[in-house]
Write a structure and sequence with these properties.
This is Aldehyde dehydrogenase family protein. Belongs to the aldehyde dehydrogenase family. GO terms for molecular function: oxidoreductase activity, acting on the aldehyde or oxo group of donors, NAD or NADP as acceptor. InterPro entries: Ald_DH/histidinol_DH, Ald_DH_C, Ald_DH_CS_GLU, Ald_DH_N, Aldehyde_DH_dom. The strands form 7 sheets. A 7-stranded mixed sheet has the order 17-18-19-15-14-21-22, with helices on both faces. It is built from 17 helices and 25 strands. The chain is of the alpha/beta class. Strand 17 and strand 18 form a beta hairpin. The protein has 2 domains: 268 residues, Aldehyde Dehydrogenase, Chain A, domain 1, CATH 3.40.605.10; 180 residues, Aldehyde Dehydrogenase, Chain A, domain 2, CATH 3.40.309. Helix 2 runs parallel beside helix 9.
């Protein structure tokens, strides 16, 4: 019996009590490719097999078919990639050229990404299970990040100090930090690498990129694009492999100057501890348990739509997912009913269909993890007011799920579920809303819905989160920094802060004229 069959069989009794799903199938935008994507390692400008001949394959979570086969990197391969990046940086073919030259290449990458938009989108659908329309949008958003990084390459600069006295002039330089290990997750493969790699390149760094072994295809296509536009050999190296095997090399190697990681908080803590041995810089974008706080004077339709979007976007497999809402007790029943009604309309199913908004869950194991949270919540006293898992055509799917009667101490109110599961809590006044929002280990993002600007600004200033949205949710711009408080990470991506993460500061002090001797009296 397969994992999927076992899961379905054990869930039958509970599923029979749950609401029907707005299921979508047929009318695919494209056909499923007949041959899997073939991927190799990119080391020092050359595509190659792994040193020991190992391979791994990816089975689509939506279609239960092998959709990609990869050369699987070993520690030897990871070390070779790091050495290539080190040599390229020290040799200066990228780190010493002008910002204008870097910007030209980064813009060309964006052009090529858009020229291959459909190809990249389909690969993301096949490996991640996300809907095709969303995948196309993410390619376009990723391209915009490369264009913004190109602007950053030209505008990055240091500072000068000319008020230190007539005999002293000083400069503060921003220099590329060096070799960067970039480790990315499976939920937004192309988008998240594009929040890191172009900014590292804009600063003049060289990189070793390790995508998730579950969703490596679009990152490798990006490698093809980088080669096509003329990036010097060794500046970007790509290794596909399993984190426990090659992750320690990428995070502890003395030739690596910085690690940039997006993923779970647990792995982020392990990386931070491992990197401490060489005191390398670490940038972490980790988990979230992000609240939307709903006041009685909210724009009702907008708030309901934002809640539904916030939890079901990318099937809830999103660090910014609005996975808990805090609703004022005077409107809690009516607002929750409106959210449930809208949730019933969300199309779930075949991700290659244009109408689909919620596709497949990444794996059987992850689907089991998500449903374990739901069952645990029921046992703790929560009510499953909507939701459950539905059988697709050979894949892993979960219906939009709403949990009510949730209290702040429950796991589903505090822990990141990473699935389409919404926890509904209530509050009586502003102070309780802020206390509940902050009573969590995470602090990535938060939102507030109210016509009262005082409520909005109080939430904005007092909730401990890296981003707070006022009467909107999950809006994003390349110009604005992204990152979290507390166990949601450290450091920032995007904006001018995103490129500055990949730099070191150097102070140069210049003395003019004769210097007073230390041995002589003044």
């Amino acid at each position: 019996m397969t994992d999927q069959q076992s899961f379905n069989q054990s869930s039958n009794e509970r599923l029979s009590q749950l609401s029907a799903v707005n299921w979508v199938e047929g009318n695919r935008v494209v056909d499923i490719p007949t041959e899997p994507f073939k991927g190799q390692l990119l080391i020092n400008g050359k595509w190659q097999a792994s040193s020991d001949g190992s391979q791994l394959s990816r089975v689509s979570p939506a279609y239960d078919l092998v959709v990609a086969e990869y050369a699987k990197a070993s520690v030897v391969d990871a070390e070779a990639a790091i050495q290539a990046a080190r040599h390229a940086f020290d040799q200066g073919s990228w780190s010493t050229i002008s910002g204008a030259e870097r910007a030209k290449l980064l813009n060309q990458v964006a052009d090529q990404m858009m020229a291959r938009q459909q190809e990249l989108a389909v690969l993301e659908v096949l490996e991640s299970g996300k809907p095709i329309r969303q995948a196309r949008d993410e390619v376009a958003w990723a391209a915009e990040l490369w264009r913004y990084a190109a602007v950053s390459a030209r505008s990055l600069h240091g500072d000068s100090h000319n008020q230190l006295g007539q005999d002293m002039l000083a400069m503060v330089l921003r220099e590329p930090i060096g070799v960067v290990s970039i480790i990315t997750p499976w939920n937004f493969p192309l988008l998240i690498v594009s929040q890191k790699l172009p900014f590292a390149l804009a600063a003049g760094c060289t990189c070793v990129v390790k995508p998730s072994e579950l969703t490596s295809a679009t990152t490798l296509v990006l490698g093809e694009i980088l080669q096509a536009v003329g990036l010097p050999a060794g500046v970007v190296n790509m290794v596909v492999g399993e984190g426990p095997e090659i992750g320690p090399t990428l995070t502890t190697h003395p030739m690596v100057d910085m690690v940039s990681f997006t993923g779970s908080t647990g792995v982020g803590k392990a990386i931070s501890a491992a990197a401490a041995g060489t005191l390398k810089k670490v940038s972490l974008e980790l988990g979230g348990k992000n609240p939307q706080i709903i006041f009685p004077d909210c724009d009702w339709e907008a708030a309901v739509d934002a809640v539904v979007f916030g939890i079901y976007f990318n099937a809830g497999e999103c660090c910014n997912s609005g996975s808990r809402i805090l609703v004022h007790e005077s409107i809690a029943d009516a607002f929750t009913k409106a959210v449930i009604a809208k949730s019933r309309q969300v199309p779930v199913g075949d991700p290659l269909c244009e109408a689909t908004k919620v596709g497949a869950i990444i794996s059987a194991d992850h689907l089991q993890k998500v449903t374990d949270y739901v069952q645990g919540a029921e046992q703790a006293g929560a009510t499953v007011s909507l939701g459950g898992q539905t059988q697709g055509t050979g894949g892993f799917y979960m219906a939009p799920t709403v949990l009510t009667d949730v209290t702040p101490e429950m796991a589903v109110a505090n822990e990141e579920i990473f699935g389409p599961v919404l926890s509904v809590l209530t509050f009586s006044d502003l102070e309780e809303a802020i206390e509940t929002a902050n009573n969590c280990l995470f602090g990535l993002s938060a939102g507030v819905w109210s016509a009262n600007i005082d409520n909005c600004l109080a939430i904005g200033r007092r909730v401990k989160a890296g981003t707070v949205w006022l009467n909107t949710w999950m809006s994003g711009y390349p110009e604005l920094p992204f990152g979290g408080y507390k166990e949601s990470g450290q450091g920032r991506e995007l904006g001018k802060y995103g490129i500055e993460e990949f730099t070191e500061l150097k102070t140069i002090q210049m003395h003019m004229g004769p210097r007073t001797s230390w041995w002589l009296p003044r």
